[in-house]
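Fold it.
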Amino acid sequence: MGSVLLSPLNWGLGHAMRDVPIIRALLAHGHDVTIAACGNALTALQREFPSCRFIVFEDYPSPYSAGRFFLPRFAFSLPVLLGAIDREHRCFDRILSRERYDCVISDNRLGVYSSRVPSLFISHQIHFHLPLLLWPVELFASAMSRFLYRKFDRLIIPDNPPGPLALAGRLSRPDSEEIWSRAFFCGILSGTAKTDVLPDLDYLVQISGPEPQRTRLEEILLPQVRELDGSCVVLLGSPQRQGEVTGSDTCSVRTYVMNHEKAELMNRARFIICRSGYTTMMELAELRKTEALFIPTPGQPEQEYLSRYYAENGWFFSKSQYRLDLAADIAMARKYPGFPAMPSTDENVRSLYDNLLAGYLE
């Protein structure tokens, strides 16, 4: 059987969590899986797959800021980021000088590739969609992404093909023939499976994403959540955190839960409050949840675009964290129908393995 190295980016837990069904499929087919990661992504995957081999492999720092000025900071930090990607690639080369793999799978880590080993890249954001005034930045980002994607043999896009079921909208649409030729649309990937349980939890609040915005949302949401009528569980998405956080008689606050525990809570929840991160969107689509409120990370173009895209399609309601009135926003969000039905993760992973991964490993 084959040997695979999989390496997710550690900007929040989303990249690691959407890789869970891929790792499960690889292990089920008898392949050896080594996971190279750092921070919360490493901790979470160690808990999910204790039998796998792990390498502590630092990635580049997130450009997210504490305020709304992601784009200026990102533009100024771009030379630093490109240098960090180059250093990441050189560190990865040193790993390959000591280890042998049949295939490398990178989830948004642009330096994790090799000309000596088939290298696959997972990303739903193939096209960078920015506000109209920033079209020069969008053109530059598209050209830069085409240059970086050339390093990889194939691009695995966790979305349905362009059309009415495209969960990422324009973000997952390649903008050149070269990228189209490398693209494999595998459909949604979620480590959270739908189960037949009674929806007995009124609210599930998921506080997630990269710091410092994760902490800022926690500070804004917790006081309002404690005032909600009905049962509530708050997940802080912080696996390395120590100590307890106070809830209330009807509200339980947990620093982190295993993926199967989160899956149970999501299945039980009647209403979900969360960021509009793409991994969470795939989970809601997988579970066919129809009642949710999205709170995009301030200044993060991807989440802001997805929130607008879903509102324009009449699927879900979203609100800025700076203007949250939770009780009123929940009432508005209940009027939306949710995502249309689409192929499940189980179907998609089988197709991904049979039509792409097996060709490198069997």
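Residues 3-188+343-361 form a domain with the Rossmann fold fold (CATH 3.40.50.2000).
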